[in-house]
Amino acid sequence: MEQITLSYPATRTLQGRALVGVVGSGDMEALFVPDAGEKLEVSITTSIVNFEARWRALFDRLSTLTELPAGQLTIHDFGATPGVARIRIEQVFEEAAHA
Question: What HAMAP family would the database entry show (predicted)?
Fold first, then answer.
């Protein structure tokens, strides 16, 4: 297992917590906990070794396409494709926006 930590400037706040996905399905789960800070702190535990560059590229792209919320995003990845990872991340932010 590999542990990856990333940090990005936050441009919005959300009020709710959210959990999406199921790591045991061969997919990934994402848990978002909001805070009043100015950063999105991302903690990724993945079964894929040497994937930090891919995760960094995904979040770099997300940060240019959408407003990232302030808080802690915890991801447990069991080999999800980049497309599935992006969907789960967008889902968890959407759920938190409506929680």
Answer: Malonate_deCO2ase_dsu
